[in-house]
Write a structure and sequence with these properties.
Helix 1 crosses helix 3. A three-stranded antiparallel β-sheet has the order 1-2-3. The protein is α+β, with helices and mostly antiparallel strands. It contains four helices and three strands. The model has no long low-confidence stretch (mean pLDDT 79). The two termini are 27 Å apart. The longest helix has 11 residues. It has one domain: Winged helix-like DNA-binding domain superfamily/Winged helix DNA-binding domain (Arc Repressor Mutant, subunit A). A hairpin with a 5-residue loop joins strand 1 and strand 2.
Length: 83
């Protein structure tokens, strides 16, 4: 490491699904790319309402909602695996 320089870890995309993990945003929780909206928040809202309501209320697309649901429902997430 060079003296006088600070190195930061850049956001990691979670594939091409529109989610990222950035250690400097929301404590490293998986979020919709370019926002501070965590995937688990959207998944929680989805259980009690419909897709259009979420998209309009949060200003996101249906594809972004589906990416959150897919991420949360992935087998490694259900088993409590690492991100």
């Amino acid at each position: 490491m060079r003296k006088g320089y600070t190195y930061v870890r850049l956001p990691e995309p979670l594939g091409d699904n529109g989610l990222t993990i950035d250690p400097n945003r929301m404590g490293g929780e998986p979020c919709i790319r370019g926002t501070r909206i965590p995937a688990h928040t959207i998944a929680g809202y989805y259980t009690g309402t419909n897709m259009d309501y979420i998209c309009q209320g949060w200003g996101i697309t249906e594809a972004q909602v589906r990416a959150c649901l897919d991420y949360i429902n992935a087998p490694e997430q259900a088993a409590g695996g690492s991100r």
